[in-house]
């Protein structure tokens, strides 16, 4: 669907007047969709860490690709949402439409940025523990290796020695 949208927008279909911003918005949206939909595929092929051993090269590469793609998708997604709201104004939509889009943008972006800033200031904070607890995980450090594996253990309980 994203590819179809990019093609339709680039060709000026649907009575639209293609411009540089609408092209950028469409292609950024396509990149965000690709990056986010490939994340479960990455997780399916991830190499599992061996207990009591250091991370393998494959696991190290997986973590860089998985986390990097996730961070890039979030940043590009926020940027694309902002460009979409700006595009509404340039395409002469009613101010009510732009206002509603801006409110939805803020409702989606402010919590993400707030959580990110909070975790930068204090990684093991009460909000992070609550969010991890909601998905059935815990924030524990592996006593054998000292690794926290991204800070979260989901779906398994580790015994503390």
Rg over C-alpha atoms, rounded to the nearest angstrom: 20 Å
Strand order of the largest sheet: 1-2
> What fraction, in percent, of the residue positions are helical?
55-70%
Shape: flat
Q: Which stretches are poorly predicted, pLDDT < 50 over at least 5 residues?
A: 145-161
H and E order? HHHHHHEE
Largest sheet: 2 strands, antiparallel
Termini distance?
51 Å
Question: Could you explain how this protein is built, in words?
Answer:
- By secondary structure, this protein is mainly alpha-helical.
- The protein has two domains: 2-120, no CATH class; 122-161, no CATH class.
- The protein is 65% helix and 2% strand.
- The chain contains six helices and two strands; from the N terminus they run ααααααββ.
- Strands 1-2 form a two-stranded antiparallel sheet.
- The chain is flat.
Secondary structure blueprint with pairings:
Elements lengths: L1 H10 L8 H18 L1 H7 L11 H34 L4 H27 L4 H9 L2 E2 L14 E2 L7
Quick synopsis:
The protein is mostly helical and 161 residues long. Helices cover 65% and strands 2% of the residues.
């Amino acid at each position: 669907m994203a590819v179809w949208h990019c093609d339709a927008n680039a060709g000026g279909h649907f009575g639209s007047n293609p411009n540089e911003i609408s092209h950028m918005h469409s292609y950024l949206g396509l990149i965000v969709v690709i990056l986010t939909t490939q994340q479960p595929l990455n997780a399916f092929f991830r190499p599992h860490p061996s207990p009591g051993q250091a991370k393998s090269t494959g696991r190290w590469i997986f973590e860089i690709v998985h986390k990097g793609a996730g961070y890039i998708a979030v940043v590009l997604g926020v940027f694309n949402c902002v460009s979409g709201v700006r595009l509404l104004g340039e395409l002469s939509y009613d101010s009510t439409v732009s206002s509603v889009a801006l409110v939805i943008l803020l409702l989606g972006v402010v919590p993400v940025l707030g959580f990110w800033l909070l975790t930068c200031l204090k990684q093991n904070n009460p909000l992070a523990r609550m969010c991890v607890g909601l998905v059935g995980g815990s924030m524990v450090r592996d006593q054998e290796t000292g690794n926290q594996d991204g800070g979260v253990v989901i779906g398994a309980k580790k015994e503390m020695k």
